[in-house]
TrEMBL record:
Coiled-coil positions: none
Protein name: AEDO dioxygenase
Domain of life: Eukaryota
SUPFAM superfamilies (UniProt xref): RmlC-like cupins (SSF51182)
UniProt keyword annotation of Oxidoreductase present: yes
Short name of any one Pfam family annotated for the protein: PCO_ADO
Organism, as annotated: Brachypodius melanocephalos
GO function terms (MF aspect): metal ion binding; oxidoreductase activity, acting on single donors with incorporation of molecular oxygen, incorporation of two atoms of oxygen
Gene Ontology CC: one annotated term: mitochondrion
This protein's UniProt keywords: Dioxygenase, Iron, Metal-binding, Oxidoreductase
Length: 245
């Protein structure tokens, strides 16, 4: 369908997000979430005045990773935030990864704007669900049992990737074959004072025995880790249409 004013599109996304997540336990939540998903699926990079970018010339000349000592591997463009949701754009340099992390008690929606992302999604399992103790490689970090649900590639042609407080709440995001960007909605926003802090995890398993990775879904052990030394997120100004709420 033809799109009218692009500024109104991202504005409508924000307004629908406010409506949807103001009452996530209400009877109309499913309908509102579907409407938000439909609007988010229409958003393209040009709607937000974004264009794909490669590694910086300075980084390329250094001979190291695209971001080594020059720019962060991931940066964030803040668009808007209320008590019920936050919205912004994450930009991943070529080869960058947002490590496996959680979203405690939060809903989320992710729409690729350019490039290709590989997204691995997992669910935490109840503490008593483990059939065996964690492997010795766990070390001293807290461990939890999880269901590794999916590992899929997403492009601008893909529908949004959705997460809920109980489904696909842990995920890892990798830029594949070049830089990538995605529009991100989290509801409610991260807030350590209210128990919504970000935790990072590492998968505890060896390499697959055969050429193909083990089939999904499957149960796995995760160990909580500090934020990786080679991952950090910088900030950039948002160049797209202004959003008012």
């Amino acid at each position: 369908m033809p799109r009218d004013n692009m500024a109104s599109l991202i504005q409508r996304v924000a307004r629908q997000a406010r409506i949807t997540f103001r009452s996530p336990a209400g009877p109309a939540f499913g309908e509102n979430l579907h409407r938000l998903q439909q609007l988010l699926n229409e958003v393209r990079a040009e709607d937000l005045h974004l264009a794909p970018r490669g590694p910086s010339a300075a980084a390329a000349a250094s001979g190291g990773p695209p971001w080594a000592g020059v720019v962060p591997p991931v940066s964030y463009m803040h668009i808007c935030e209320t008590e019920s949701f936050s919205m912004g754009v994450f930009l991943l340099r070529s080869g960058a990864c947002i490590p496996l992390h959680d979203h405690p008690g939060m809903n989320g929606m992710l729409k690729v704007l350019y490039g290709t992302l590989r997204i691995a999604c997992m669910d935490t399992l109840p503490a008593g669900a483990a059939a065996a103790p964690p492997p010795p490689a766990a070390g001293s970090g807290p461990c939890l049992r999880a269901l590794f649900r999916s590992r899929q590639h997403y492009t601008p042609a893909s529908p949004p990737c959705l997460l809920s407080p109980h489904t696909d709440n842990l995920h890892q995001i990798d830029a594949v074959d070049g830089p990538a960007a995605f529009l991100d909605i989290l509801a409610p926003p991260y807030d350590p004072q209210h128990g919504r802090d970000c935790h990072y995890y590492r998968l505890l398993e060896g390499p697959p025995a055969g050429a193909e990775p083990p089939a999904l879904p499957r149960e796995v052990w995760l160990v909580e880790t500090p934020q990786a030394a080679d991952f950090w997120c910088g900030g950039e100004p948002y160049p797209g249409p202004r959003v008012c709420l």
